[in-house]
Design a protein that fits this description.
Strand content: 5-15%
Largest sheet: 2 strands, antiparallel
Low-confidence stretches: 1-7
Strand order of the largest sheet: 1-2
Number of helices: 3
Order of helices and strands: EEHHH
Structural class: alpha+beta
Length: about 100
């Protein structure tokens, strides 16, 4: 669920951030979100995307949690299916990885 801010953001306004000895940066005093997903690009740009943390019990149904619990119990007791051959998907996975 993407975070929606009520604060208008002007991408033309830039602030200078300095990295301290412990490799921390201080964000400007604009309250957008408490948690961020961070990406460091190949050109050393730091991209922060606001994220909202939610309780999994609020977004995963009781039925789904019940099925997951039953599956874990079966796994613990050794009741599992035969291995599945996923080698036919290797090419697709490698193509997607190469695009990144």
């Amino acid at each position: 669920m993407p975070f929606k801010s009520k604060i208008a953001f002007d991408p033309q306004v830039f602030e200078i951030a300095k990295v301290d000895e412990k490799r921390r940066i201080t964000l400007p005093k604009v309250k957008l979100a408490r948690y961020y997903e961070m990406e460091v690009t190949a050109s050393d740009e730091i991209i922060l995307r606001p994220r909202a943390l939610v309780d999994p019990r609020e977004v995963i149904s009781k039925k789904t949690l019940s099925v997951l619990n039953e599956s874990l119990l079966n796994l613990g007791e050794g009741r599992v299916s035969a291995p599945i051959d996923l080698s036919e998907f290797d090419e697709v996975v490698h193509e997607k990885a190469a695009k990144k």
